[in-house]
From TrEMBL:
<dbReference type="Pfam" id="PF20038">
    <property type="entry name" value="HTH_59"/>
</dbReference>
<dbReference type="InterPro" id="IPR045403">
    <property type="entry name" value="HTH_59_Firmicutes_type"/>
</dbReference>
<feature type="domain" description="Helix-turn-helix">
    <location>
        <begin position="10"/>
        <end position="65"/>
    </location>
</feature>
<protein>
    <recommendedName>
        <fullName>Helix-turn-helix domain-containing protein</fullName>
    </recommendedName>
</protein>
Length: 81
């Protein structure tokens, strides 16, 4: 049995993902419904009515790096100064 750490920040629901990337929740759901093949294998899953998506999945469909990674990198660079 595969164990998944649901406390991992790289696993989020569609609403959280949309908020992090500055998109509408509808965008995420629409992309899942229209082009599920564009998501890397294992990066999306539906639990009941709730879609769960990984950071990898969001980066794949948006073409943008996780904004949290960019913020952490910027913060680390500022700390080095």
């Amino acid at each position: 049995m595969v164990r998944i750490n649901l406390d991992n920040v790289n696993i989020m629901d569609a609403r959280q993902a949309a908020e992090i990337w500055g998109l509408s929740e509808g965008y995420v759901r629409k992309r899942i419904n229209q082009a599920p093949q564009k998501f890397p294998k294992g990066s999306i899953r539906k639990f009941g009515k709730q879609w769960v998506i990984t950071t990898e999945g969001m980066e794949a469909i948006t073409g943008k790096t996780d904004p949290r990674k960019i913020a952490r990198k910027k913060k680390a660079e500022e700390a080095e100064k």
